[in-house]
Amino acid sequence: MQTVTLIPGDGIGPEITEEVIRILKEAGAQVEWDVQTAGADVAEKEGSPLPDRVIESIKKNKVALKAPVTTPIGKGFRSVNVALRKSLDLYANLRPCKNIEGIKTRFEKVDLVIVRENTEDLYAGIERQIDEDTAESIKIITRKASTRIVKFAFEYAIKNNRKLVTAVSKANICKLSDGLFLECAREVAKKYPQIEYKEILVDNLCMQLVQKPEQFDVLVLPNLYGDIVSDLCAGLIGGLGIAQGANIGENAAVFEPVHGSAPDIKGQNKANPTALILSAIEMLKYINQNDIAIKIENALFKTIKEGSILTPDLGGISSTKEYTNAIIRNL
Ligand code: NAI
């Protein structure tokens, strides 16, 4: 039995978390949940949206499954997600993006992986109001973080039989910061002659992704470009409802969907739990419960391929619970 920290989040978080727990239980996963709440409600009661107990729990268990947590826009507390990644030094944000059979999209043959730097760039949160009409945000890029994220991308490529790593930047404009990122990428690339290495500017990447996404394999990006391009890539394969992710560091890993707390559909029993299910599957593989992971994966893909019971974001009319019930029947 493995203890895993579980953060149910807010918005649609608790609804999809409940379904994922149900699936893992039915599939026989050997997991004991250490439930840790975080977010706005917690901030009201405990004075912080991310109390130390959450960090301590993940440090102890070394692995967590996390649903989305709302971040106030333009004011209020700093993002719980960013703070969590920073305080546990979860430097690599891994977001595989592959077509799922049965989900119709404009593109076929999408099979790429986004490796997003997770600790710096504009997410360092260094901002100031210079005067009433001027605000400043500082973008931090360091050699240490750039080198280790590119190394992570190449190591991932080798372990997962990938052939090409593309470093993404805007080094024509951010000559020093993105220039440093590219310099580090080139240095690391030299050590992996068996993997092809390319570079692309982020604007060109966006155009190429919506024209010929199949040309890309592993993409490695600084934090902000990685965030934006991840959502774009989720769109290529059928939307945020099916886009999984993981935040990985030397000492802990937090598995979570790409999507946010979707307040527009909260409490309506129509959120798609797939992204969280896929994240949980990766979590199970990470803790060496491969058989259970594959069992759930097969049931999930079978349900989607059958196509009769799908949530509205995938063109269906079924509720979150009906969809989960179908997956459980297919286990
Ligand atoms: P969002 O991802 O929550 O929603 C964008 C759109 O996608 C909405 O129309 C939503 O209904 C839809 N959507 C998202 N997940 C879905 C699902 N599982 N099933 C069906 N439809 C789904 O992005 P938004 O609106 O920009 O952010 C809402 C809040 O979430 C913000 O406070 C943001 O900061 C937070 N957020 C949290 C993240 C995390 O906890 N890791 C990641 C991204 C955003």
The number of domains is 2
Our count of helices gives 11
Please give the alpha-carbon distance between the first and last residues.
21 Å
Helix and strand sequence: EHEHHEHEEEEHEHEHEHEEHHH
* CATH uppermost class of the largest domain: Alpha Beta
Protein structure class: alpha/beta
Strand order of the largest sheet: 2-1-3-12-11-4-5-10-8-9
Helix content: 40-55%
CATH fold group of the largest domain: Isopropylmalate Dehydrogenase
Question: How big is the Rg?
Answer: 20 Å
In percent, how much strand structure appears in the residues? 15-25%
Fourth CATH level, the homologous superfamily of the largest domain:
Isopropylmalate Dehydrogenase
Main beta-sheet annotation:
10 strands, mixed
Uncertain residue segments: none
Small-molecule binders here are: 1,4-dihydronicotinamide adenine dinucleotide
Q: How would you summarize what this structure contains?
A:
The protein has 331 residues and is of the alpha/beta class.
